[in-house]
Amino acid sequence: MALLVVKFDLKKRVKLAQTVWFMYWFAVLAGILVLSLGLFFKIELRKRSELMDNNESHFLPNVLIAMGLIACGINAFGGKVCYDSLDPTKFAKWKPMLKTFLVFCMGFNALLIATALLCFVMRIPFQFTLAEGLKNGMKFYKDTDTPGRCYMKRTLDLMQMEFRCCGNDNYRDWFEIQWVSNRYLDFSAKEVKDRIGSNVDGQYLMDGVPFSCCNPSSPRPCIQYQMTNNSAHYSYDHYTEELNVWRRGCREALLSYYGGIMNTIGALVLLVTMLEVAVTVGLQYVDTSLSTLANPEDMESESEGFLLEKTVKETFTDIMAKMKAMGKGAKVEEGGEEGVATVS
Amino acid sequence: MPFLSLKFNLQKRVKLAQGLWMLYWLAVIVGIILFSLGIFFKIELRKRSEIMDNNESHLVPNLLILVGMLSCGLNAFGGKLCHDSLDPQKFSKMKPMLRPYMLLCCGFNALLLLLVLLCFLMQFAVYLTLAEGLKNAIRFYKDTDTPGRCFMKRTLDMTQIEFRCCGNNNFRDWFEVQWISNRYLDMSNDVVKDRVLSNVEGKYLMDSVPFSCCNPGSPRPCIQHHLTNNSAHYDYDHRTEELNIWNRGCRQAVFSYYSGIMNSIGALLIFTMAGDVAGLKYLSTALETMADPENPECESEGWLLEKGFKETLADLLSKVKTFGRANQVEEGGTSPNVTAT
């Protein structure tokens, strides 16, 4: 008893073939969409690879690009098969390949689902890469004369302004490192010598932040230096002041940005998967409806299209039996060879 | 003697009609692009209307939106004409509408030309509006508690950060205004009192700039205050320091952004003034002059103008003259009645 049988006459067959052809062209566009999403994500990662220790994993965008290309190819081929299905001579060319093609399509759809899941899961290792990279980024902020790190200051400043964040977890991270280069410190000044002396590592630490932490929405000009000293500024209380510098940490800001991109891409890939499943089912119906013509010479005869030739259980037992037979065949061969080997 | 006449057989006519049809659909897409460019330009002007004194002229984007919609409509109709021209029945229905349609297209091209001129000329108006608006913006920077101006600080800071500029002409414009609100000045402090009194208008002026003037590409942390005092900072010479704050003025920076948009729009408009009017004229005349109207496969001739260029111009002038003379004769006829009574 076949699964989900539908009766077809010539008109219905033509309509089915046209609809599935149309859907295949949409699926080609969807494949191009997945490809461009992969490229976009790759570019976004490269733009900020400095802040991620040049260590970020490009696995996900590469997979997306590959899946996009394969989807375009499969769907273009499927569209061509549908177009030719209305002409019996042309269809006879494609018929032998169709079964393998359909199995391949099902495997591809499973891979697409796996890719979508990957999009949602890759957030977690990404978090660790970001945390490590940002910590180092702040450490190397002052090294504008060291080759390889001379643009770290500019990258970090631009990032803090663009994402409206300050420091790793919050602005106090800047209090714990020396972010002013020694070239701009007057070592003959008493104040500088005191600060450096009071510190175990000999670093010039201060309760100040770079200008890129400043919030333009603050009603008063930005207070960057001596932030924890209320008496240094008129009418200022650092406990209640909220608008002066950005309060969010950059790790959280970047993570929510990239997390948003990955979630959107995951959702879109799921939608594309549903479209792919639909066209695969459509092609199966086209194939079976043309194979079961009551009278092969007469194009106008009726036919039946189905999803599976037998029921789900029977198909499953069939596949298991085939796999067992394959396994046994291999064993028999090995057993024969072994027998020969031990005898000689 | 027809102007620029070409011989057509059935195949050439069909090819001409198909080519024109594709061209018309391309022109519809260009019309949609013009429409969206108009909306984009309008949004960009509204985004920064605060630094232009809320006084900027929206003439160019409004005209552009109108032209985009007109272009879509006209070109879609032209495409339909071309599509029907291959079927004699449908074409005979459309034939009377052809002449007014081509006149409309000529008028539309004249409108496009006007818009191109406007795109290039309105840049002067934008420049003047910007100069005035930025001057006022810098003056109102500190008024974050005055309703209607409380976002001026944020707008100006974001503009300076985004366009990488400082002040109106350069950073020294900030030295001439008080950009710190009195609410944050300790009036009991001697330093503050000295500064305020040393000034005729009682303003707290200093040689400092806001943080948004800072250049992230500078190798040293930003020096915002005491800019002209070399001894206030270690290893600093304000005459040779170039990377500390942005050197460009915001009027120059914002104007070059807007003039870039307007120049691109002008260039696209010039490109749009395509010769599809010429193509349609050829097609219609080719269909009209078929030697044997019943046989679609006969030859025909298509041209741009029925007589030579000079003759057509002379015809037009004589038509205009007869039109004027007819009016005069009428007036001459009525006036004797008036004088007689």
From TrEMBL, chain A:
Transmembrane feature ranges: 20-41, 62-81, 101-121
Domain of life where this protein originates: Eukaryota
Keyword terms: Cell adhesion, Disulfide bond, Glycoprotein, Membrane, Transmembrane, Transmembrane helix
Principal cellular location given in the protein's record: membrane
Membrane topology, from the record: Multi-pass membrane protein
GO biological process: cell adhesion; visual perception
Subcellular location: Membrane
Mitochondrion as UniProt keyword: no
GO cellular component, one term: plasma membrane
InterPro entries: Peripherin/rom-1 (IPR000830), Peripherin/rom-1_CS (IPR018498), Peripherin_LEL (IPR042026), Tetraspanin/Peripherin (IPR018499), Tetraspanin_EC2_sf (IPR008952)
PROSITE patterns documented for this protein: RDS_ROM1
Similarity annotation: Belongs to the PRPH2/ROM1 family.
Name of protein: Peripherin-2
Organismal lineage: Eukaryota, Metazoa, Chordata, Craniata, Vertebrata
TrEMBL record, chain B:
Keywords assigned: Cell adhesion, Disulfide bond, Glycoprotein, Membrane, Transmembrane, Transmembrane helix
Predominant location: membrane
A Gene Ontology biological process term: visual perception
Pfam families: Tetraspanin
TM region(s), chain numbering: 20-41, 62-81, 101-130
Recorded family membership: Belongs to the PRPH2/ROM1 family.
Protein name: Peripherin-2
Organism of derivation: Poecilia latipinna
